[in-house]
Amino acid sequence: MTLLTPSETAQFLRVSARTLRRLPVPRAKIGGQLRYDLADLEAWVRKQKQGMILDVTPATPLTSLPTPALIPAASPRPVKHRNPLFAIGGRRPT
After folding, report:
1. Which of 21, 29, 72, 84 has the fewest other C-beta atoms within 10 Å?
2. 15: Cβ–Cβ under 8 A, 6 or more apart, which residues?
3. 58 located within any domain
4. Is residue 78 situated within a structural domain?
5. Among candidates 11, 56, 48, which has minimal Cα distance to 26?
6. Could you tell me the residue range of the domain that residue 43 belongs to?
7. Cα 17 to Cα 3, 10, 21, 39, 47, distances in angstroms
8. Beta strands at 28-30 and 33-37: parallel, antiparallel or unpaired
9. pTM above threshold 0.85
10. pLDDT tens by residue, 1-52
11. How far apart (Å, rounded) are the C-alpha atoms in residues 59 and 35?
Protein backbone atom coordinates (compact mmCIF):
# COMPACT_ATOMS: atom_id res chain seq x y z
CA MET A 1 0.00 0.00 0.00
CA THR A 2 1.42 3.34 -1.07
CA LEU A 3 0.07 6.40 0.71
CA LEU A 4 0.46 9.83 -0.89
CA THR A 5 0.33 13.28 0.68
CA PRO A 6 -2.16 15.84 -0.69
CA SER A 7 0.56 17.63 -2.69
CA GLU A 8 1.80 14.35 -4.21
CA THR A 9 -1.77 13.37 -5.05
CA ALA A 10 -2.42 16.73 -6.70
CA GLN A 11 0.70 16.25 -8.84
CA PHE A 12 -0.39 12.70 -9.71
CA LEU A 13 -3.84 13.88 -10.85
CA ARG A 14 -2.38 17.07 -12.40
CA VAL A 15 -4.73 19.37 -10.52
CA SER A 16 -4.15 22.04 -7.90
CA ALA A 17 -4.30 21.23 -4.20
CA ARG A 18 -7.43 23.39 -3.94
CA THR A 19 -9.18 21.38 -6.68
CA LEU A 20 -8.11 18.13 -5.02
CA ARG A 21 -9.95 19.09 -1.82
CA ARG A 22 -13.20 19.50 -3.79
CA LEU A 23 -12.92 16.20 -5.70
CA PRO A 24 -14.73 13.14 -4.32
CA VAL A 25 -11.48 11.16 -4.20
CA PRO A 26 -11.18 8.34 -1.64
CA ARG A 27 -9.01 9.49 1.26
CA ALA A 28 -8.10 8.55 4.81
CA LYS A 29 -7.20 10.65 7.81
CA ILE A 30 -4.16 9.20 9.56
CA GLY A 31 -2.83 10.98 12.62
CA GLY A 32 -4.87 14.06 11.75
CA GLN A 33 -3.37 14.27 8.24
CA LEU A 34 -4.99 13.37 4.93
CA ARG A 35 -3.49 10.51 2.95
CA TYR A 36 -4.47 9.02 -0.40
CA ASP A 37 -3.93 5.38 -1.35
CA LEU A 38 -2.39 5.06 -4.83
CA ALA A 39 -4.44 1.93 -5.67
CA ASP A 40 -7.68 3.72 -4.70
CA LEU A 41 -6.71 6.73 -6.82
CA GLU A 42 -6.01 4.58 -9.88
CA ALA A 43 -9.35 2.78 -9.42
CA TRP A 44 -11.15 6.13 -9.06
CA VAL A 45 -9.55 7.45 -12.26
CA ARG A 46 -10.53 4.26 -14.14
CA LYS A 47 -14.12 4.65 -12.90
CA GLN A 48 -14.20 8.29 -14.06
CA LYS A 49 -12.95 7.27 -17.50
CA GLN A 50 -15.72 4.67 -18.01
CA GLY A 51 -18.35 7.31 -18.70
CA MET A 52 -16.18 9.26 -21.15
CA ILE A 53 -16.53 9.04 -24.92
CA LEU A 54 -13.01 8.67 -26.27
CA ASP A 55 -13.79 8.54 -30.01
CA VAL A 56 -15.48 11.76 -31.17
CA THR A 57 -15.58 11.34 -34.94
CA PRO A 58 -18.79 12.86 -36.35
CA ALA A 59 -21.24 10.42 -37.99
CA THR A 60 -21.91 12.90 -40.81
CA PRO A 61 -18.99 14.62 -42.51
CA LEU A 62 -19.00 18.34 -41.82
CA THR A 63 -18.77 19.16 -45.54
CA SER A 64 -22.15 17.57 -46.26
CA LEU A 65 -24.05 19.62 -43.65
CA PRO A 66 -26.14 22.54 -44.96
CA THR A 67 -24.76 25.99 -44.20
CA PRO A 68 -27.05 28.13 -42.02
CA ALA A 69 -28.29 31.45 -43.35
CA LEU A 70 -26.41 34.44 -42.04
CA ILE A 71 -28.29 36.24 -39.30
CA PRO A 72 -27.59 39.97 -39.00
CA ALA A 73 -26.18 41.00 -35.65
CA ALA A 74 -28.59 42.85 -33.40
CA SER A 75 -27.70 46.38 -32.45
CA PRO A 76 -26.32 46.66 -28.92
CA ARG A 77 -28.76 47.97 -26.37
CA PRO A 78 -28.11 49.02 -22.81
CA VAL A 79 -28.55 46.34 -20.21
CA LYS A 80 -30.58 47.34 -17.18
CA HIS A 81 -29.62 45.98 -13.82
CA ARG A 82 -31.74 45.76 -10.74
CA ASN A 83 -29.19 47.78 -8.78
CA PRO A 84 -28.43 51.12 -10.51
CA LEU A 85 -24.89 51.09 -9.09
CA PHE A 86 -24.12 48.12 -11.31
CA ALA A 87 -25.95 49.25 -14.43
CA ILE A 88 -23.83 48.79 -17.51
CA GLY A 89 -23.31 52.06 -19.29
CA GLY A 90 -25.37 53.89 -16.67
CA ARG A 91 -24.42 56.53 -14.14
CA ARG A 92 -24.66 56.48 -10.40
CA PRO A 93 -27.77 58.23 -9.17
CA THR A 94 -27.00 61.56 -7.52
Report:
1. 72
2. 23
3. no
4. no
5. 48
6. 3-50
7. 16, 5, 6, 19, 21
8. antiparallel
9. no
10. 899 999 999 999 999 999 999 999 999 999 999 999 999 999 999 988 886 6
11. 45
